[in-house]
């Protein structure tokens, strides 16, 4: 794993209205970016010096360097 400077994840929405929310790094965790995906849309997200976590709401497939996660499981 590359740490905080470059790891990517792929998010594919399995339904309309999947929310992808970027959370900040630092002493206070805050939302800093939000996207809404419709069924079939794909987003590639990157962890950076400002993004420490990504929250996904809704049915989606997430592909990471560690494997694939399906939110329906």
TrEMBL record:
An individual GO BP term: DNA-templated transcription termination
One example GO MF annotation: RNA binding
Endpoints of the signal sequence: none
Superkingdom of source: Bacteria
Domain Tryptophan RNA-binding attenuator protein: 5-72
Organism (species): Lihuaxuella thermophila
Lineage: Bacteria, Bacillati, Bacillota, Bacilli, Bacillales
Quaternary context: Oligomer of 11 identical subunits arranged in doughnut-like structure.
InterPro entries registered for this protein in UniProt: MtrB, Trp_RNA-bd_attenuator-like_dom, Trp_RNA-bd_attenuator_dom
Sorted UniProt keywords: RNA-binding, Transcription, Transcription regulation
Protein name, UniProt field: Transcription attenuation protein MtrB
Similarity-based family: Belongs to the MtrB family.
Pfam families xrefs: TrpBP
């Amino acid at each position: 794993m590359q740490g905080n400077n470059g790891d990517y994840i792929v998010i594919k929405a399995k339904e309309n209205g999947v929310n992808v929310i970027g959370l900040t790094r630092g002493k206070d965790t805050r939302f800093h970016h939000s996207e809404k995906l419709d069924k079939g849309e794909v987003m590639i997200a990157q962890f950076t010096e400002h993004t420490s976590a990504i929250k996904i709401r809704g049915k989606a497939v997430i592909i990471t360097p560690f494997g694939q996660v399906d939110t329906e499981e």
